[in-house]
Amino acid sequence: MPMNRKNGVPSAAARKEEGDRESAARLKNRILVADDDASVREMLARVLEGEGYQVWTAANGAEALEVAAAARVDLVLLDLKMPVKNGWDTFERLTAENPLLAVIIITACSNQLFISLGAGAGALLEKPLDFPKLLQTVRALLAESAQAQLARIAGKPAEFCYVPAQPNRPQ
Fold first, then answer.
1. What is the pLDDT of residue 40?
2. CB 45 within 8 A of CB 57
3. What is the pLDDT of residue 26?
4. How far is CA 30 from its chain centroid?
5. Which DSSP string corresponds to the chain?
6. pLDDT confidence band for 24 (50 / 70 / 90)
7. 138-152 burial, b if ≥16 CB within 10 A, otherwise e?
8. Residues with Cβ < 8 Å from 112, sequence gap 6 or more?
């Protein structure tokens, strides 16, 4: 990255170019949001699209499986309590078909940490969601190496993001 010769700080042009490259990279990333709550789906889609990601939504597990079968998906935000096909059944099918698929469990259900770790999920974020942490987690999982993904699937030590519900945080 070109630096300003006087102070060693990246030049404005270099920062813009770097930002353009990051935005272009994000446009290639496709995210599926599966949640039965329409307001949560729409909010997550708006936030992710605002960051440059391509987003599909599904109202239940069956729809999520249909979308994933029809389009290449890089990451899934998956609620657990959904009609038709619940989150864990959906997770099992999604990861059976694509073991390296990054999945972030988003739920209001408590006591899902050890299940998420054991299943090989990339992260567990409890509702209400912390959006800066969500976006940080999305970026980290999309940048994760195949080796790190395989380690998590095999139950070996791997990065895992857990953000518990914050009861005092305004919704």
1. 95
2. yes
3. 45
4. 10
5. --B-TTT-PBPHHHHHHHHHHHHHHHHH-EEEEE-S-HHHHHHHHHHHHHTT-EEEEESSHHHHHHHHHHS--SEEEE-SS-SSS-HHHHHHHHHHH-TT-EEEEEES-SS-HHHHHHHT-SEEEESSP-HHHHHHHHHHHHH--HHHHHHHHTT-S---EEE---TTS--
6. very low
7. bbebbebeeebbebb
8. 80, 105, 124, 126
pLDDT at 170 over 60: no
Q: What is the dihedral of CA 98, 109, 63, 148, to 10 degrees?
A: -20
d(CA 91, CA 108): 17
**Which residues neighbour 48 within 8 Å (Cβ) at sequence distance 6 or greater?**
31, 33, 55, 138
- Are residues 47 and 26 in contact, defined by beta-carbon separation less than 8 angstroms? no
**Residue 55 and residue 35 in contact, taking contact as beta carbons nearer than 8 Å:** no
Q: Which of 84, 115, 127, 102 is closest to 32 using CA atoms?
A: 102
